[in-house]
């Protein structure tokens, strides 16, 4: 299917085919229908509601849904997870669908995005999700999570200042980052030391053949 947004012509045929492939269905298992339904909503409303850019429609599965799912193997089955700067619900909504026993808190400062997130939660009856409007810093001291995640929010030093106060001692920050994340580690050392954090680990987030793996950074709070 091709759609035109101004001068941008979007052909999402290949991306739809990827999402309907046996490999993706097998990878997502029992969560497939929910994740696919969430993807359909993003495809229909995401650009119009300012959640994703028009060019992202043609790579929704590859760059967003599967990219978000790539972090799940590094997350616990149960406990509490906080998604900082949840935006359109990537990765938080996808995580909640794949980890139904995990309590997921989505923190997002923009009202139109929290409205969207609440609609998604209601649509898919995600009883394990709590949407909270605000900045991560506003919730420091309000609760402690077993793990905090995020995607494309900030550099590691800033992200650590935002996220680690939300993590219980012994818990982890597990975040989706760009391939150059190694360059962010040294400038973040001072912040990481202030939380007695361990050595950051750079991990590979792979999903299905033919889809480029993403880069995941994990660090444990001491």
Automatic annotation (TrEMBL):
<dbReference type="Pfam" id="PF02527">
    <property type="entry name" value="GidB"/>
</dbReference>
<protein>
    <recommendedName>
        <fullName>Ribosomal RNA small subunit methyltransferase G</fullName>
        <ecNumber>2.1.1.-</ecNumber>
    </recommendedName>
</protein>
<dbReference type="InterPro" id="IPR003682">
    <property type="entry name" value="rRNA_ssu_MeTfrase_G"/>
</dbReference>
<keyword id="KW-0698">rRNA processing</keyword>
<comment type="similarity">
    <text>Belongs to the methyltransferase superfamily. RNA methyltransferase RsmG family.</text>
</comment>
<feature type="binding site">
    <location>
        <position position="85"/>
    </location>
    <ligand>
        <name>S-adenosyl-L-methionine</name>
    </ligand>
</feature>
<keyword id="KW-0949">S-adenosyl-L-methionine</keyword>
<dbReference type="GO" id="GO:0005829">
    <property type="term" value="C:cytosol"/>
</dbReference>
<dbReference type="GO" id="GO:0070043">
    <property type="term" value="F:rRNA (guanine-N7-)-methyltransferase activity"/>
</dbReference>
<feature type="binding site">
    <location>
        <position position="90"/>
    </location>
    <ligand>
        <name>S-adenosyl-L-methionine</name>
    </ligand>
</feature>
<feature type="binding site">
    <location>
        <begin position="136"/>
        <end position="137"/>
    </location>
    <ligand>
        <name>S-adenosyl-L-methionine</name>
    </ligand>
</feature>
<feature type="binding site">
    <location>
        <position position="151"/>
    </location>
    <ligand>
        <name>S-adenosyl-L-methionine</name>
    </ligand>
</feature>
<keyword id="KW-0808">Transferase</keyword>
<keyword id="KW-0963">Cytoplasm</keyword>
<keyword id="KW-0489">Methyltransferase</keyword>
<comment type="function">
    <text>Specifically methylates the N7 position of a guanine in 16S rRNA.</text>
</comment>
<dbReference type="InterPro" id="IPR029063">
    <property type="entry name" value="SAM-dependent_MTases_sf"/>
</dbReference>
């Amino acid at each position: 299917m091709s759609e035109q947004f101004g001068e941008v012509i979007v052909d999402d045929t290949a991306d739809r085919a990827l999402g309907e492939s046996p490999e993706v269905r097998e990878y997502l298992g029992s969560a497939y229908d929910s994740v696919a339904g969430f993807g359909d909503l993003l495809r229909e409303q995401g650009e119009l509601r300012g959640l994703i850019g028009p060019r992202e429609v043609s790579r929704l599965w590859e760059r967003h849904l599967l990219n978000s799912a790539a972090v799940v193997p590094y997350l616990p089955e149960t406990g509490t997870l906080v998604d900082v700067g949840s935006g359109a619900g990537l990765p938080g909504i996808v995580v909640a669908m794949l980890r139904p026993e995990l309590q997921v808190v989505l923190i997002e400062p923009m009202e139109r995005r929290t409205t969207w997130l609440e609609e998604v939660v209601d649509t898919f009856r995600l009883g394990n999700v709590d949407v909270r409007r605000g900045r991560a810093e506003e919730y420091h001291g309000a609760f402690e999570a077993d793990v905090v995640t995020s995607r494309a929010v900030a550099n590691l030093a800033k992200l650590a200042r935002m996220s680690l106060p939300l993590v219980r001692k012994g818990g982890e920050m597990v975040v989706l980052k760009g391939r150059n994340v190694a360059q962010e580690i040294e400038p973040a050392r001072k912040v990481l030391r202030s939380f007695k954090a361990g050595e950051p680990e750079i991990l590979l987030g792979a999903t299905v053949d033919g889809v480029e793996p993403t880069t995941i950074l994990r660090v444990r709070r001491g």
